[in-house]
Amino acid sequence: MRTLHTTGPRVRTTAGPLPCAAVRGPALAHEHLVLDLDLRGDGAAVLDAHRHGDQVTGELAELHAEFGLSLVVELSCRGMGRDPRALARIAERTGVAVVPATGWYYEPFHPAGLDGASVEELTATLLAEARDGLDGTGIRPGVLGEVGSHGDTPSAPEARVLRAAARAARETGLSVATHAQLGRGGLAQLDLLTGEGLPAHRVAVGHQDLLDDPAVHRELARSGAYVAFDTVGKESYQSDDVRLRLLLELLEAGHADRALLSCDISRHGYLRTEGGQGYGHLFRSFLPRLRAAGADDDLVDLLTRRNPLRFLTGASTEEI
After folding, report:
1. How many domains does the chain contain in total?
2. Which sites bind a divalent metal cation 1 (predicted)?
């Protein structure tokens, strides 16, 4: 007989609310399954639902069978080529729950007209999507992200987007995942978000594995924010040797409950069928190295399952 999970914290997925207690396996905390960031016109920064959907689906289904992958936080938001219907199909075909997102990426990818919008107008847009669903589908977002900035200080349009995300998060109970370009500007992002009254534990600061600055990681973690090591395997940006060192330093500083892990697959060339590392690089390569450095099963479960669920829901350690 199937066990029904009717109480406790829940995450919003393409199929509706999912009890955290039903998420038995690991999660990928920052991924893209359908994406279009093709500013240069070369088709590289694309994951097309029709051309690449079967490859993405095949990878996730394989990871579900081999490693128990249970959840993917899909952070393709407004202006990033998101496709909630395609996400729902992938989730249904793979048995892997997918958390869809809303928000705006960093400034080069802002849609036309966004620069003139007020924080209040932006907040209203996010609240409407949280209430009514994404792009007329009725599929409601489960996270705000990846809300972006670049440089050490967000630009004025980026600051308005961050403030709007914080206000919408407070109103809806959703969390905010950020894009900190090359890992920079995370502390400034957090200041803006918490300045709008959003608790730090409802924020995941993105791409911190690209920033070789353990002091910043510790400061973010001490504040209560989640520190996302979410580009694992992207060796052209940062070596996994450095990522592992930075993660171990954060863990040794006592912040295991603040770290998130993922691969941020953001172009079709990263798929395994095209010779890339794929969504499974975290499980096949990075986690074995972390285990060899001394991580036990409980720590790996914390990093790959409990932390993502706590981030998404705001639940306490005892609740997950």
Report:
1. 1
2. 30, 32, 146, 264
With respect to residue 17, please indicate whether it lies within any of the assigned structural domains. no
Interatomic CA distance for residues 284 and 169, integer angstroms: 34
pLDDT digits (tens, 9 = 90+) for 176-232: 999 999 999 999 999 999 999 999 999 999 999 999 999 999 999 999 999 999 999
What's the residue count for the chain? Answer: 320
Say which residues have a Cβ less than 8 Å from residue 33's Cβ, sequence separation at least 6. Answer: 47, 56, 60, 72, 74, 76, 86, 87, 90, 98
- Supply 268's token pair: 């079709």
d(CA 113, CA 296) in angstroms, rounded, equals: 50
Domain-located, residue 166: yes
Query: Is residue 8 in a domain?
Result: no
First-to-last alpha carbon distance for the chain, in angstroms, is: 23
Where is the binding site, in residues?
A: 30, 32, 146, 179, 207, 264
- The residues, any chain, with a CB within 8 Å of residue 136's CB and separated by 6 or more, are none
Q: Is the dihedral of CA 40, 41, 43, 47 positive or negative?
A: positive
Structure tokens at 9: 């914290």
Spatial distance between the Cα atoms of 238 and 42, rounded to a whole number of angstroms: 23
Specify the pairing of strand 226-229 against strand 203-205. parallel
Both structure tokens of 25:
């396996």
Which two three-digit tokens encode residue 23? 């998420």
Instruction: Please state the residue numbers annotated as binding site for a divalent metal cation.
Output: 30, 32, 146, 179, 207, 264
Calculate the CA 143 to chain-centre distance: 8
Within-domain flag for 16: no
Task: Say what the pLDDT of residue 5 is.
Answer: 55
Of the candidates 263, 255, 265, 264, the one whose C-alpha atom is nearest the C-alpha of residue 302 is 255
What is the pTM for the complete model shown? 0.97
- Per-residue pLDDT tens over the stretch 46-67: 999 999 999 999 999 999 999 9
CATH code for the domain of 197: 3.20.20.140
* Containing structural domain, residue 315: 24-319
